[in-house]
Design brief:
This protein has 326 residues and is of the alpha+beta class. The protein contains ten helices and four strands; from the N terminus they run ααααααααααββββ. The protein starts with 10 loop residues before the first helix and ends in a 6-residue tail after the last strand.
Length: 326
């Protein structure tokens, strides 16, 4: 019979495990913080921004636990080089059009694995002399369960086509293999994860459905008739794949470029819509969303008046793939 004071881990091993937790969570916090500026979709940006604070609190709590385990405070230690490689692969999704890969990496791979690891640790922790660790685990479990559910809600919003679903599955499979090779965040395995499950109702500040609602267009934009006509004709030409007709609305020094033309070809065939508009002096900044049969892209356009007409003086793609809902 196991003695009631017997623990699963010795003190030194407990400290090492805590350092491994802190490394994974600290890296995740830094990654999420860096991604917020790179992510065009408001729902995903708000998701990351809300959860980066929780993750920072988790890292701080693990760091403060270390002196109680006869170890230096606030020290992180990767389980092995393969875990570093896994997190480097997560961090590599830094292009604006890789929002799906970013959300999948954190909310379908890393956070579900952290949740499963914390739950397994709590189940075998000694209730007599490990209450501080148990309290930290309980808080992390509660937060991660809520995060995983919120991430899945945002992913369902972003994955609008079979092609995007396939991208998400491929990213998840690739990263999961890397995490398995590392033996998980502790390096000791087994590598498991908890799928998205029902979480308690979230407060408004942490409600993924509210993040999605804020991303959606909430009404019509006050646009002058001449500009509205120009926008409609420009969008119609792009959706139809009529490049010469689209070029008619570009200022002489504006070029589409081969990369943008390739994106626009993938966004042909369905519809276009205005998702944002702002006035800057006499000019107008407009975000135009193209939802094609295969893919989608959001264009940032700076329109300038030319007599009674309008022309695009600046054009760039600020988001790709993650289509807005119908």
């Amino acid at each position: 019979m196991t003695h009631p004071l017997a623990g699963h881990l010795e003190v030194d091993e407990s400290a090492k495990t805590v350092r491994h937790y802190r490394y994974a969570v600290e890296r995740m916090t830094r990654i999420l913080g860096g991604w917020m500026a790179l992510t065009p979709e408001l729902s995903a940006k708000l998701l990351m921004g809300r959860h980066v604070w929780d993750s920072a609190q988790h890292a701080d709590a693990w760091g403060k636990r270390l002196p109680e385990l006869r170890a230096a405070a606030q020290i992180s230690e990767p389980a092995n080089a393969r875990l570093v490689a896994f997190l480097d692969a997560v961090d590599a999704a830094e292009r604006p059009e890789q929002t799906i890969e970013r959300v999948v990496a954190i909310y379908r791979v890393l956070k579900p694995h952290l949740l499963a690891t914390y739950e397994a640790h709590l189940a075998r922790a000694n209730a007599v002399y490990e209450p501080p660790t148990c309290r930290i685990l309980a808080r992390c479990i509660e937060d991660e369960r809520r995060h995983v559910a919120a991430g899945e809600t945002v992913l369902r919003h972003l994955l609008r086509t079979p092609e995007l679903e396939a991208r998400a599955r491929a990213c998840e499979a690739r990263l999961w293999l890397l995490l398995e090779a590392a033996g998980g965040v502790t390096g000791a395995g087994p590598v498991t994860r908890v799928s998205a499950a029902a979480a308690p109702p979230a407060p408004l500040s942490d409600d993924a459905a509210e993040f999605i609602r804020l991303e959606r267009s909430t009404g019509t934009w006050p646009i002058a008739p001449a500009l509205a006509q120009a926008l409609g004709a420009f969008g119609d030409a792009l959706i139809a794949g009529d490049t010469p007709a689209a070029r008619r609305w570009l200022a002489p020094d504006v070029e589409l470029g081969p990369d943008l033309e390739a994106r626009l070809r993938r966004a042909q065939g369905r519809r276009h819509r205005i998702v944002a508009c702002a006035r800057v002096g006499e000019q107008r900044l407009v975000k135009l969303r193209l939802d094609g049969a295969r893919d989608g892209v959001t264009l940032l356009l700076r329109w300038v008046p030319t007599g009674s007409d309008w022309r695009v003086a600046v054009l760039e793609a600020v988001s790709a793939s993650a289509a807005l809902p119908a």
